[in-house]
Amino acid sequence: MKVTVFSGSHKGREGNTLIMVEEFLKGAEEAGAETENIVLTEKNIKYCRGKFECWLKTPGRCTIHDDMDDLLPKFMASDIVVFACPVYFDNIPSVMKNFVERLAPVLLPQFEEDEKGEYRHAKRYEKYPKLVVISNAGLPGQTNFEVESLFFRRLARTFHTELIAEIYRGEGEIFRGQKNIMLKPLIGKYKKLLRSAGKEVVENQEISDKVVEDLEKPIVPPSLYIKFGNEEWDRLIKECQKEEK
């Protein structure tokens, strides 16, 4: 089984989402999957021009030649695709959205009605990869992911496939405290859950209710996270003000 992650954080390999991805992939590899993590900020991906040339002029192929020439086949060759990104202003980052829009060639231009009576583009291929989402937000709470979750659920429908797992982590900045003697065991416990999730996705194409429940529990109390988070922001602001003087 091939599991491909497309990581769409503006921070690239410095983002908190990558920490989650690395643990998830360890579990997937333990279950025997071949894995790859593609960091989108390291790729040359131009914006879609919206001319429909991939449907009309060169069916199934984009007329823009950049790194999508390699990435689109990787997407289609995967059994499971993981979209990994943080929440930016209540939605997915532009890095990820740009990549998603360039996947248009895998569909046909013609419309069809789905089983719910809604309309979408017809599929070009018989089989599409199943989807997983991994995301984190700086703020605590699962409600931060409502828009993102809806987006990826609709995207799975658009691509004639299933969204088989969603892993959302509020309190994302807590990963910055991995060396803290008090936080280290709490973060370690959460990482173990991520590895379990990766293993279950490969073996069962879903995450068990128990693991989902544990993944969504706060790592630290939200009130404590907010308190120390605001103190850290105040410290960083003062440091910047000193540098400017």
Automatic annotation (TrEMBL):
Family note: Belongs to the SsuE family. Isf subfamily.
Cofactors required: FMN; [4Fe-4S] cluster
Name of one Pfam family that matches: FMN_red
PANTHER family: IRON-SULFUR FLAVOPROTEIN, NAD(P)H-DEPENDENT FMN-CONTAINING OXIDOREDUCTASE YWQN-RELATED
The UniProt record lists the keyword Cell membrane: no
GO molecular function terms attached to this record: oxidoreductase activity
Name recorded for this polypeptide: Iron-sulfur flavoprotein
Keyword field: Flavoprotein, FMN
Gene3D superfamilies for the chain: 3.40.50.360
Ranges for domain NADPH-dependent FMN reductase-like: 1-104
Keyword Membrane: no
